[in-house]
Design a protein that fits this description.
This protein is 37% helix and 16% strand. The chain is α/β, with parallel strands linked by helices. The chain folds into two domains: 4-132, Enolase-like, domain 1, CATH 3.30.390.10; 138-380, Enolase-like C-terminal domain (TIM Barrel), CATH 3.20.20.120. Helix 6 links the parallel strand 5 (176-180) and strand 6. Helix 5 packs parallel to helix 6 (188-206) and helix 9 packs parallel to helix 11. Bound molecules: the ligand O=C(O)[C@H](O)[C@H](O)[C@@H](O)CO and magnesium ion. Magnesium ion binds at residues 215, 217, 241-242, 267, 317. Homooctamer; tetramer of dimers.
Amino acid sequence: MTKIKSVRTRVWNWTGPTVPPTGNFCTNASDALWMKGDAMASFRFHQWLTCEVETEDGTIGIGNAALAPTVVKQAIDDWYAPLVVGEDPFDYAYLWEKMYRRTHAWGRKGIGMTAISAIDIAIWDLMGKLTGKPVFKLLGGRTKEKIPVYYSKLYAGPVESMQAEAEEAMKHGYTGFKSRFGYGPKDGMAGMRENLKRVEALREVIGYDNDLMLECYMGWNLDYAKRMLPKLAKYEPRWLEEPVIADDVAGYAELNAMNIVPISGGEHEFSVIGCAELINRKAVSVLQYDTNRVGGITAAQKINAIAEAAQIPVIPHAGQMHNYHLTMANTNCPISEYFPVFDVEVGNELFYYIFEGDPEAVDGFLQLDDDKPGLGITISDKHLANFEIVE
Ligand SMILES: O=C(O)[C@H](O)[C@H](O)[C@@H](O)CO
Ligand SMILES: [Mg+2]
C-alpha cells in the first residue's frame, strides 16, 4: 500500500489570444442587479486549477477545478492537503468524509466543496493508475458502446449567426444542441420576443427530430420563467436550464411541477445532500452536477444512485473527463454535454489547452479507452507559452 506523499496545486492563467464573446451572450444572475453595461462582459473562465496528488511510489493523480482557482488553491494548500497526506488513497470514502467534516463549518458548498472535488478527482485518477484500470471500470464499467454528446455553445447573438453556427454543428453529426438566452426580466416583453425569435430560428435549422436545450444560467426569475414556459412549449425543448438562482429550490420545484418544459439544474449545487434535496423536492427533471464542484467522483457516484432511485437522469455540466467516466459507468447518465474545441472565448473550452487526452466528439459521440488507466488525461505542454502558471 502506497500512501499519499504530496498535493501540488497550480493555477493556470490564460494569457494567450481570446475571442471576445458577443455582448449579452447569456443571461445570468447579475442581470437582476442595477448595474451599468453588460454583466456577462466579466463572465470568463480564463483560469483553471490543477491538483496533483502524488503517492510515495511516484504515481501522480490529476484533479482540477474551474471555480475561483486562486481561492481553491489556497484552501487546498492551507486546509485540505494536510488532511490527505500520509493517508491511503484507497480509503477514499473516509478521506472524503474527513475533508467534508473537518471543514464543515465553512466548506459544505462553494469553495470548500470545490477543493474537495479537485482532490477527490485526483485520488480516483490515482486509483485507476495504481490498479491499471480506467476510472469508469472502477465505477461500474462500460454501460454504452459510445457516449452520445450534445453540442453546447450557441451563445445568444444575431439570429443569422446563431443559425449559421447551428447549421455548421449539424454537419458534425450532433443530435442535441444547447443555446443560451440573451434576454431576461430586465428586457421586458421585447426581450421575450427576442428570446422566442431565436428559439424559433434554431428549430428552423435543426428541425424537430433533434434535441434543443435552452440555457438561462440563473438569469431569469420565477415570475419571468412562469410567463415564458407556455410560450416555449411549442418549440419542444428537451429542458430549460437554471431558470432561477441556485438557492431558489422552491422556484425550481414550482416550475418543474408546471410540467410544461422539463427543468434542469444542479451545476451550482454542492455535496450529496445538496443534490439529494433537488431530487427529493422534484426541483429538476434532469440533474446536472459538475464533478469538479459537487464533491468529486466519490460524491457524484453516490448522487447517481439517489437520482437513479428517483429515475431522474443525470447529465453532468461541462463534459470533460471527470464527468465522462461517470456517464460511461451509469445507464442513468444518458448523454454528455460537450463544449466544442474552439479558440479561447468564454473559457468553457480552456480545458482543452491545459490537458491532453480529452476525447473529441465524432459524429455526435465520444469514446473512452478501456485500456487507459485513470482518467486518461495528462497535463499538456503544448500551450505553456500562453499560460502564466502560479505554483
Ligand atoms: O451549462 C453550461 O454549459 C454552463 O451554464 C455554461 O458553462 C456557461 O457557459 C453559461 O452558458
Ligand atoms: Mg448551465
